[in-house]
């Protein structure tokens, strides 16, 4: 009795497609990667043509210096910056986000999300997976986070592009857990602002392409014979994955999507000629071309005096000096992305989320800086309140959802959980949050154990 085709797909040994070394991605053949993903994918169903861009601010940005300022709080809480009005009456944000202020009618600020994990790995894992971490200090999540889940649930979608793309294999505290390595993103690690930026696993040298064409012609004749001999459909499945691998590596769609040089100088200038701006622009190109989920991390802004990420304790840097260098770059990149999404008619297809793993302590905590050797202001980790920006997705924009206490310490009105945001995203992507995967012990685990879509965004 022959085994089912999908069993053969999973257990067959790894083979090198066309014996071409340039068809590998991190040591795993691209066709193997696609085949493994398909073997564990959920049954195909009607999937909306929607995508998500997650701008991830690793380290935890201060809500008190960005989207939830408290000008009437005591000075040890309110800090040095002042709020400014936006183009939506009643929505005020930080003075160092003037470009945000011009597009406030195209985003919503959620001020009342909170959770209970005050370290980076645990906070990120909690926010992105919807589950309490078992080991909060571990840099890799014990549960699948949103990117890998989208990758797995949308693996049947074939747009000639990877369904999940990021600029790192995982965010700190994130990961794919029991969904396996195949659910991790296609990584675009280099700086899109560099003049020689390219994606090696997508771009093929013309000489290699000629050789590939010859090998494809030869393989076609063998494949016809193999299909004639195949009795259970397994070879047909292998052919499918080889075809998809070839499509990604040779199609104009994939190559053009990653080719940021096709953008006009005016557009690239609008986003900012820096790593953050060009990553945001690349993210827009990728979702516009059909990728389902793109994570771009905005850390290491490349500004003298700025810390690597958003974790601005006083020991790491002077909070306000750091933000004076960091926020203008962030402001330009994010506001340009939002404006571009709407101007290109992508606001119903694409949802943008801007967040870190938590907020910062409402009370400023001055300490001696490790590098400066002088007392300076900073804020510490604080999951009791945080601000999340959401744009597009065909949702209601130009509003603030929820509020915090007068000193910014805790969610006050319309208290929300990260799971409510995740539930909103999954619904937008056409993913059933109750769909279960088997964990390492064989237990069925629903995508989300709790949470419901945020009504105010509908």
UniProtKB/TrEMBL annotation:
<dbReference type="Pfam" id="PF07394">
    <property type="entry name" value="DUF1501"/>
</dbReference>
<protein>
    <recommendedName>
        <fullName>DUF1501 domain-containing protein</fullName>
    </recommendedName>
</protein>
<dbReference type="InterPro" id="IPR010869">
    <property type="entry name" value="DUF1501"/>
</dbReference>
<dbReference type="InterPro" id="IPR017850">
    <property type="entry name" value="Alkaline_phosphatase_core_sf"/>
</dbReference>
<dbReference type="InterPro" id="IPR006311">
    <property type="entry name" value="TAT_signal"/>
</dbReference>
């Amino acid at each position: 009795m022959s085994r089912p085709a999908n069993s053969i797909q999973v257990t067959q040994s790894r083979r090198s497609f066309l014996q071409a070394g340039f068809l590998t991605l991190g040591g795993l053949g691209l066709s193997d990667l696609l085949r493994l993903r398909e073997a564990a994918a959920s049954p195909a169903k009607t999937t909306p043509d929607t995508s998500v861009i997650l701008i991830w601010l690793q380290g935890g940005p201060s809500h008190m210096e960005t989207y939830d300022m408290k000008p009437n709080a005591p000075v040890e809480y309110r800090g040095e910056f002042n709020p400014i009005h936006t183009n939506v009456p009643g929505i005020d944000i930080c003075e160092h986000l003037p470009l945000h202020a011009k597009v406030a009618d195209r985003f919503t600020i959620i001020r009342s999300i909170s959770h209970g994990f005050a370290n980076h790995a645990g906070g990120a894992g909690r926010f992105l997976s919807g589950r309490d971490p078992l080991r909060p200090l571990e840099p890799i999540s014990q549960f699948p986070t949103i990117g890998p889940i989208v990758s797995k649930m949308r693996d049947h979608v074939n747009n000639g592009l990877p369904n999940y793309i990021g600029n790192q294999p995982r965010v700190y505290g994130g990961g794919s857990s029991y969904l396996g390595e195949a659910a991790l993103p296609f990584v675009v690690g280099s700086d899109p602002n560099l003049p020689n930026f390219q994606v090696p696993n997508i771009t093929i040298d013309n000489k290699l392409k000629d050789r590939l064409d010859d090998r494809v012609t030869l393989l076609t004749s063998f494949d016809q014979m193999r299909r004639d001999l195949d009795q259970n459909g397994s070879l047909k499945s292998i052919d499918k994955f080889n075809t998809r691998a070839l499509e990604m590596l040779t199609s104009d769609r994939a190559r053009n999507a990653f080719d940021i040089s096709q953008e006009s100088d005016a557009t690239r200038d609008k986003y900012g000629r820096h790593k953050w701006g060009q990553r945001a622009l690349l993210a827009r190109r990728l979702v516009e071309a059909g990728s389902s989920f793109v994570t771009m991390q905005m850390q290491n802004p490349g500004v003298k005096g700025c810390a690597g990420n958003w974790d601005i304790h006083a020991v790491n840097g002077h909070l306000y000096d750091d933000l004076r260098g960091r926020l203008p770059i962030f402001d330009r990149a994010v506001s340009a992305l939002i404006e571009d999404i709407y101007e290109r008619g992508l606001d119903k297809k694409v949802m943008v989320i801007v967040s870190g793993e938590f907020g910062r302590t409402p009370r400023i905590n001055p300490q001696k800086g490790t590098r400066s050797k002088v007392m300076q202001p900073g804020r510490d980790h604080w999951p009791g309140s945080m601000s999340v920006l959401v744009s597009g997705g065909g949702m209601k924009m130009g509003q603030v959802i929820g509020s915090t206490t007068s000193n910014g310490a805790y969610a006050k009105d319309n208290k929300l959980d990260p799971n409510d945001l995740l539930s909103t995203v999954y619904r937008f992507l056409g993913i059933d949050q109750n769909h279960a995967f088997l964990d390492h012990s064989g237990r069925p685990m629903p995508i989300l154990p709790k949470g419901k879509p945020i009504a105010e965004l509908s």
